[in-house]
What we know:
The complex is a heterodimer. Chain A is mainly alpha-helical.
Amino acid sequence: MDAIYLTFILVLAIFLGFELISKVPATLHTPLMSGSNAISGITLVGAIVSAQSGSDQMALYLGTAAVTLATINVVGGYLVTDRMLGMFKKKD
Amino acid sequence: MDTALLINLAYIVSAILFVLGLKRLGSPATARSGNLMSATGMLIAVVVTLMEQAKLPWEYIITGMVLGGLIGASAARLVQMTSMPEMVALFNGFGGAASLLVGWTALYPAPGASGLLATVQGISTFTAITIVLSILIGGVTLTGSLIAYGKLSEKMSSAAIQFTGQQVVNAAIVLGILASAVMLVQNPGFDSPWFYAVLGLSLLFGIMVVIPIGGADMPVVIALLNSYSGLAACAAGFVLNNNLLIVSGSLVGASGIILTNIMCKAMNRSLSNVLFSGFGAAKKSTTKVEGEPKPITAEDAYYILEAAQRVCIVPGYGMAVAQAQHVVKELMDNLEANGCEVSFAIHPVAGRMPGHMNVLLAEANVPYDQLIEMDDINPQMSNMDVAIVIGANDVVNPAANEDEGSPLYGMPVINVNEARTVFVLKRSMKAGYAGVDNPLFVGENTRMLFGDAKESISTVVGEFSD
């Protein structure tokens, strides 16, 4: 049942994604990519729960590496997107 | 309150914030607040998970987050706008790697279980399949992105690397991945030799899919890898039964696919054509371009521009390389002060990633409402007194409209040749990335302004101030 339920969410989310993204204008495509990069850093949430004390030491190291890489994506992605979007100005 | 319930409620809030954040990216006026919303969603998800569910020991979590935060923040602060494509490529790779590692970690038995019990009972077939997918997609994204990074940052040659039997080797790798995946799913475990086979072959496959793709096709590749990094997060979500990972991963996956599609359309090529053949390999131009280019000096260019009422500037990657965006803005200011109307025509594949030119011009303080998309500017092109092409070539090649023998034929281009006068700023008469001759350069109304784009424009700007 889990498999069906998760796939259900997957399919709906993909359709939602298509609807949302197709409305983003070409001028914002670079910030869109860096911003979605940041969102894909959501793996951080998975990395935090991936291994626990008592697990094989190797698993702990792998989990820590996952936390590091995902945090780079989250922090770097949101900051650089903000930096870019701050530059977009309308003619005054 | 029930922990699981609390976490799930928080995840719903996060998902809503991600969706609203993307929705606000629909206009440059609301985009920045949208990004902030999305970041808030992420913060909620991470904090709630840390408070309620953190399993990894604290010292490990803190080490990882501090290290990652420092690297991410300094990268975001220091990166040059010209280098955004490399940075996004690298970040795609990190996202893929994180999902790969989460999948890998899931192969280790939970504490308490031991021996046969742990490996047999711990992982259901469904979970095992999702673990394999997470390692596979994550691995391909990681090495593919690293190669893309190498090509974009010119740490390696950006030319397409092709050899005979490449397709056969790739097919063998795919079969190898499938076979090892089947074996690993039947008996999952971190010490299985099949795990190492899946891991190694996935990493190898990532390299193999990106090396045959040439520099000019990089916008497609990073958009595609962007999509993969989202799908990898999705796969990790399936591994951990976490629906926030699935929702966010799907949003990113959809975004990458749409961008890939837009880039392919703008080059009039199918995705499989981009992925499996180096540019120009299939077709050589059948018609020869005849005529002599007519050079012009910056001084003479100034006199024409001074008299112009409407000027359209067409930037390409060459503008980024010459770091000319700031002097271009100065030129724009001078022209406008002179009563001239200035617009910028942006081709979808100008630059090395979708939207790259827009960011570079935004950095130089060019208002975004003066950046016009190709389809909107083309009908106005015949009203332009002067079109200035800066470091663009293939995207303004009229052969794409007229010459059926040209490899570019059918690709939508900016019709600068319809403007009254065209200035082309170029270092030399070298062909563009596609290696195709450009009849624009010998056109009746074209004047070539040879030399470094930044210097040429500076000279013209200097004439204005005198």
